[in-house]
């Protein structure tokens, strides 16, 4: 496993994304977000880079730049 400092616990990840921990659990169950487990205690861990990628997708949906560049 990579360095544990690269990961956030579920409460930290929820705060980072601005959602509740239950939302993250639901996203995990639906397969919408990757979850890693702590090798010792089994806690859910979320890789910060993956959370950043998710935020980038939400901020700029596909095709948003193309639409803004179209002549009116």
UniProtKB/TrEMBL annotation:
Superkingdom of the source species: Bacteria
Record-level Gene Ontology MF annotations: DNA binding
GO BP annotations, alphabetical order: regulation of DNA-templated transcription
HTH merR-type domain ranges (all copies): 7-52
Protein name according to UniProt: Helix-turn-helix domain protein
Species this chain originates from: Symmachiella dynata
């Amino acid at each position: 496993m990579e360095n544990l400092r690269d990961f956030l616990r579920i409460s930290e990840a929820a705060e980072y994304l601005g959602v509740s921990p239950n939302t993250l659990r639901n996203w995990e169950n639906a397969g919408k977000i990757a979850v890693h487990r702590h090798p010792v205690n089994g806690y859910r861990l979320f890789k910060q880079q993956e959370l950043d990628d998710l935020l980038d997708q939400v901020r700029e949906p596909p095709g948003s730049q193309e639409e803004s560049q179209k002549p009116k």
